[in-house]
Amino acid sequence: MADTTNLLVLESPILPVLTQRRSPRAYSSQPVPADVLKQVFAAASSAASCFGEQPWRYLVGTRATSPEAYNKILTSMGEFNQVWAKSAPVLAVSIAKLHFSHDDNPNRHALHDVGQATATLAIQAAELGLQVHQMAGFSIDKVRTAFGLPAGYEPVAVFTLGYPGDPASLPDGLRDKEIAPRVRKPLAEFMFEGEWPTPATERYDQATV
After folding, report:
1. CATH class of 16-206
2. What positions does the domain Nitroreductase occupy (predicted)?
């Protein structure tokens, strides 16, 4: 069942699943079935990548079946994120392979391509009634050490995955963020046809999740 909480409203119509995708902090304790988990991560395979390299890798920990990996990922996060992320049944780290396989040259598009794959994964999750919350607030060094990550691979982000839960389960400050209206910058602030503009203002305060 689709998550229709706090749908995104934009100036032009888009695919319904894109309006449903959000970054919750409240998660249900309901486990994600193994076949559904595979379906979500399989969606990453459909993303475009430079030379078809597919430089994305994912370390995954589930509370139910791989608790040690789950705890390694959780403890790599900043304390603020741990407060709510520990309610999600699945935690993951996206990782970029930094060199091309065919010639070992640096792949300057690797992080971009990993982002594309994870965005695709998140959309598939939303289609299945799940949600993903991606975070920059984690320690790259802790991930490297905990999982013995080899040279040439760079942790990009951590994320939660699970079925949305009750916002009332969150502390006061986070509860307000969970239910606040979702706002995006208007097209005029980031779509520039023909030439580079000189906008009078940039409203970064409107980039809420």
Report:
1. alpha beta
2. 19-73, 76-163
Alpha helix stretches (DSSP H) within 128-184:
140-147, 172-179
Rounded CA separation 109/102 (Å): 15
Q: Domain map of the chain by residue range?
A: 16-206
**pLDDT tens-digit map of 83-127:** 999 999 999 999 999 999 999 999 999 999 999 999 999 999 999
Q: How far is 164 from 129, CA to CA, in rounded Å?
A: 8
Q: Is 89 exposed, middle or buried (0-12, 13-18, 19+ CB in 10 A)?
A: buried
Per the CB < 8 A criterion, the answer to whether 91 and 138 are in contact is no
Q: Which of 24, 15, 11 is nearest to 183 (CA)?
A: 11
Find the helix or strand (DSSP H, E) in which 108 lies: none
DSSP alpha helix (H) spans, 12-61: 16-20, 34-42
φ, ψ of residue 61 in degrees (nearest 5):
-130, 130
Question: What pLDDT, in 10s, does the model give residues 142-185?
Answer: 999 999 999 999 999 999 999 999 999 998 889 999 988 898 98
**88 and 61 Cβ atoms separated by less than 8 Å:** no
pTM greater than 0.90: yes
CA–CA separation, 131 vs 43, rounded Å? 14
Name the residue among 153, 24, 146 with its Cα closest to residue 76: 146
